[in-house]
Structures are given as structure tokens and as C-alpha cells.
Amino acid sequence: MSDPTAIEAKIGVLEAEMARTQKNKATNYHLGTLKAKIAKLKSELINGPGGKSAGSKDAGRGFDVSKSGDTRIGLVGFPSVGKSTLLTSLTGTRSEAAAYEFTTLTCIPGTMKYKGARIQVLDLPGIIEGAAGGRGRGRQVISTASSCNLILIVLDAAKPVTHKKIIESELFGFGIRVNQTAPKIKIVKKDAGGLGYQEAVPQTKGMNAEVCRLICKEYKISCAEIILRQDVTTDQFIDVIEGNRSYIPCLYVFNKIDAITIEELDILDQMPNYVPISSTLKWNLDELMEEVWDRCNMIRIYTKPQGQIPDYDGPVILHAQNPSIEEFCNRLHKGIMPTFNFAWVWGKSAKHQPQRCGKEHILEDEDIVTIVKRVC
Ligand SMILES: Nc1nc2c(ncn2[C@@H]2O[C@H](COP(=O)(O)OP(=O)(O)OP(=O)(O)O)[C@@H](O)[C@H]2O)c(=O)[nH]1
Ligand SMILES: [K+]
Ligand SMILES: [Mg+2]
User: What is the number of the ligand 1 atom nearest to the C-alpha of 100?
Assistant: First the structure.
């Protein structure tokens, strides 16, 4: 079955059945099976029958814009919320903005420099409900969003907050999990031996051996070792089986706050991961940049050639959570490590200034590093 309308209809029937089914211990197994069936149909809708999962390279191709800079962020939202105006305000790259919907028809990249990092910002066409299922350019937009290190969901502050849910569920339908971390579940498929199910931590959200077996049955997994290292939902379990989900941080950018009242702003203010701005008036773009910086998890390391002052203008940007000196060296140049002797480190990670460190030493934001080579 590959006719999208037929798949959508089938999903509709299953979702209706789920809504009808009361949630309790007795129906838990049935709900697990239903969820797995729906997840399978949704990935078929996006990738075609037997297709690859949502995040994979060949699935629902994104716009052909090459990556540049230290990180990439994407502007996603309904038409005319002000994405293009925001791109222009942040990066200076002009992207046409106008009062009619679907002004932007392709992906427009811009670059902004912040704290020494080069951040690629992608303006994208507006999306509407049904985008993930293939409506309009939606799939291309969301596929491009899944290539970003951070997604800014741009919303019109004067429009209903329900728009936030719609955009989120479009991203969700494409396999993007915003502001979530990958569930700690290990699945090792085997050739024989049946299903092994282990709970490394107690499960309180619906998972148990039988639910696991039923979901695996839907996916025709009969031999595998499964270990749950975290308290997870059945949906998270299905996510891991489907594979290729993208776990991407996201900020909700409420634009056009110049058009709403202080009282309305106060209500919005209670939402997590939210930044109010005005793109046209350039209000609060500083806070937006700071929040973007926080979410991108970038660390700046200044290099200091021996006997010279550090290069504060061109920090080396590292993405790793706890980057070691070795990672720093490899980022600079692959040829450094073979001749590496030790490093002098100044900054937060150093116990004294400077500290003599080996390649395993973990660096922190704004450390200064001098590499000393071995004399051969
Ligand atoms: N009042 C107000 N209007 C804004 C603001 N930002 C954008 N606009 C207006 O909103 C309209 C749409 O802006 P665009 O930047 O084209 O919106 P878009 O999201 O890129 O729209 P599409 O490309 O069609 O999806 C334009 O008339 C802008 O001038 C803002 O901060 N305040
Ligand atoms: K517009
Ligand atoms: Mg636009």
C-alpha cells in the first residue's frame, strides 16, 4: 500500500481506536501494538513502502544548501510569522519579506558571527499542517530542519499558541524530537536465541516484557537483546526501533511582540524555552543570540603560539560536551597529535595558571592553550 491517502485513512482508523481505548493495565498491550502500527504507517507515509526511516539521507530530501560555519540553525514556522525578516535582522543577508503568505519559496542561508563562532542561519519556506505528510514544500523544509543543530520555531505572538503544537507535531511526524535526549535503550539484533528483555532501571511508564514482545512482533524482530537503561515510554521504545530519529534542541521565538499588549506578553512569558522578539524593530535580539549560544553547546578555545599573545579573534570552536586536548588538536590539524608532547593550559579547567596537561585533559569554555611539540 503506497497511496498516501489510503495510508492516512488507515492511520486515522488506528488513531481513533487508540482514542477510544481506555488507558489501563489491561489495555496497555493493545495500545503498544497500536502505537507500533501507527509509527510504521507514518514512516511509510514519509519514506514510501519499506523505505528508510525519517532522518536517513535519502528520505524526503532537504534543500541543497551546503553546510558552512561552526553550527547550523533553522527557522521553521507558519507562513508570514517573520522568518525572513528575522534572517535579515540577524545576518544582514536579505531574504524577501512581504505581507503575503509563502513569500519565501526556497532555503536562504545567511551567516552571523557570535562570540567568535560562525553560525549558519537558514530561512525556510513557511509550513502548514500536514507538512510532514508531504503537503506543499513541507517535507523539504522539515528534512532541512533535521540537518540543523538547533531549530528556532518562529511564531507570531498575536496568533493562537496552538500554532506551536501544530509545528511541533509536524516535526515529530518526521522523526524530529525537540528538546529531548536519545532514550538510553540498547537493542542488539541477533540471528538466534529469541528475545532477551532486561530492565536496568524500574519501568513505570508502560514498558514490560510483554509490551516489548508485542512491539517487536510488529517489527518482525524475534531475536534480540534489549536493555532499558532509563525509565522510558512505549513511544520512546518505538523511536529506538524505528531508528534515525533526530534529537534536536529548539527555541520558541515569539515574533511581532510590538503588536501585542504587555498583558499578553506576560502570559507567553511563562513558557519554557521561549524568547520574545520583534524582528522589524530588532527588539531583544541580544537575548535571542545568548539563548541560541547556550543551546548550541559550543566551546571556545583560544590558541596561544609559544611566546605570543593568544588569538582572541579566532577561537577554535568545539562541539563535544567534554572536549579533550586531543580533540582540540585534531580540530586544528590532523598532523598535530603524532608530535604532541604536552600543552600549557590557562583558564577554568586549569588548576594553576598555566597548568601543564596531557592529551586527556578536559578543556572548558574560553581556555587558552599552547601546544608543545616533542623534539625529535
Ligand atoms: N509588526 C511586526 N511585523 C513583522 C515583524 N516581523 C515581520 N513582520 C511582518 O510580517 C510580514 C511577514 O514577514 P516575512 O518575513 O515575510 O515572514 P515569513 O515568515 O518569512 O513569511 P513566508 O516566507 O511567507 O513564510 C511582513 O509584512 C513583515 O514586515 C515584527 O517583528 N513585527
Ligand atoms: K510572508
Ligand atoms: Mg519568508
Answer: 24
Q: What is the C-alpha separation between 99 and 82, in angstroms, rounded?
A: 9
How far apart CA 273 and CA 317 sit, in angstroms, is 24
pLDDT of residue 166: 94
Rg, Å, the chain Cα set: 24
Which residue bears the cell 542488539?
188
Answer whether residue 63 is part of any domain.
no
**Is the complex ipTM more than 0.90?**
yes
Average pLDDT in the 174-198 region? Answer: 95
280 CA to middle of ligand 1, Å? 8
From ligand 2's centre to the CA of 303, what distance in Å?
44
Question: Count of domains in the chain?
Answer: 3
Q: Considering the domain boundaries, does residue 64 fall inside one? A: no
The residue whose CA has the least distance to atom 16 of ligand 1 is: 97
Which residue is associated with the grid cell 587558552?
Answer: 368
Residues 9, 44: Cα–Cα separation, whole Å = 13
Rounded-to-5 percentages of helix, strand, coil across the chain: 30, 25, 45
H or E element in which residue 331 lies: helix 325-332
Q: What does pTM read for this prediction?
A: 0.88
105: containing domain: 71-180+247-296
Backbone angles phi, psi at 338, to 5 degrees: -60, -25
pLDDT at residue 53 tops 50: no
The CA 180 to ligand 1 mean position distance, Å, reads 29
